[in-house]
Structures are given as C-alpha cells and as structure tokens.
Write a structure and sequence with these properties.
Number of helices: 8
CATH topology: Rossmann fold
Low-confidence stretches: none
CATH class: Alpha Beta
Shape: globular
Oligomer: single chain
CATH architecture: 3-Layer(aba) Sandwich
C-alpha cells in the first residue's frame, strides 16, 4: 500500500512578478499565476488523480491556487485544512523589499547568504532550518499518517515550506535542497510507503 503526496508551489503571485521578497505578506495571484494553477488542476484531473485530503497554508496565494485547481478537477464541497505551519519562510525585514534594492542596501553577498544558506536568517525572519522546524513536525503529525494509510494528499504551499518537506522526503543535504528550484504552479508527486519512506517520485 502506498500513499500519494502532491506538492504544488502556488502560482505566480503579484509580488513574484514585481521581484519582491514576500514571506508572510499576503499578495494574490497574477493572471499568469491563475493560469498556472488551472493548468496544474487540469493535468491532475487528466492523470486520474483524486485527492482524499487537502492541506494548504494560511496565505492567500496558496489558498487561491488550491481553489482554482479544485475547480479544474471538478471537485467541490471538500474539507480544506489551512495552517501557518505550511506558510512560506518569513523573510522578516526583507519582506516587501525589491530584491535589487535589498542588494544595494545590504550588499550582494549578504543577501545571497540570507537567501541561499540553510541556517542564517535575515533580520527578524526565518532561515530554511527555522522553516523546517515548524513545517516538518506538522507534516509528520498530520499528513504522513494519511499517506501511510494509502491516502492521496494534495498540498499547495510555498517554495521554502516545500523545500523543507522535500529535504526530508528525499533525504537531501542542506546544500542539495538549496539547489532545488520549484517553479510556480509546478507539481512534485511522490509515492510514500506504509513505513513512511519514499517509494518513488513520479511524473505527472
């Protein structure tokens, strides 16, 4: 018996388009982001995937992505669990700033460290390690037991909360996970065994 986990980064947000650090700020999707979410919903439907459970973050861009996917999958009247544990990494003082402006203020090297190190947080914010410290326990307590029972779980969330999950699922090192990119609207699909371990990553 294997469960199926579908992780989806939200569609392009208004602040992705503007090259702003977003974090826990709450912009909605762009027209492109809406199209990406719809396309992923259509692809899941075409692949015959019907989730049993739905989880997302407390942020609008992930919730809207899920709503659009469900619409395309012709799924209605389901229970959706929303939790801040699945929120994007908190960028603290960087949130709302243009990434180029941040480089001018703090320097290219420092901003790169904040963005791409595993355990160095920006001022007032979270590192990827901090994000994993809230995301992984939630996954292990709420989502993994469902997968071990053979259920299918859909999780639209964010680049860094997904990195935290993928790091654990694929048993990647901090350096390896920091090299992994998640395109907006892009699904990552896993089969998870009854022992909670990865069986395979599958293409849609």
């Amino acid at each position: 018996m294997t469960g199926t986990l579908i992780l989806v980064r939200h569609g392009q947000s208004e602040w992705n388009l503007k090259n702003l650090f977003t974090g826990w700020r709450n912009p909605d999707l762009t027209e492109q982001g809406i199209a990406e979410a719809r396309a992923t919903g259509k692809a899941l439907k075409a692949g015959g995937i019907v989730p049993d459970y739905y989880y997302t973050s407390a942020l609008r861009r992930a919730q809207h992505t899920l709503d659009l996917m469900l619409e395309e999958m012709d799924i209605a009247n389901v229970t959706i669990t929303r939790n801040i544990a699945l929120n994007e990494r908190d960028y603290g003082d960087l949130a709302g700033l243009n990434k180029d402006d941040a480089r001018e203020k703090w320097g290219e090297e420092q901003v790169h460290i904040w963005r791409r190190s595993f355990d160095v947080p920006p001022p007032g914010g979270e590192s990827l390690k901090d994000t994993a410290a809230r995301t992984l326990p939630y996954y292990q307590a709420e989502i993994l037991p469902l997968l071990q029972q053979g259920k299918t779980v859909l999780v639209p969330a964010h680049g860094n909360s997904l990195r935290a999950l993928v790091m654990a699922i694929e048993n990647l090192s901090p350096d390896e996970i920091l090299e992994r990119e998640f395109a907006t609207g892009e699904p990552t699909i896993y089969r998870i065994g009854a022992d909670g371990k990865l069986v395979e990553r599958v293409a849609l």
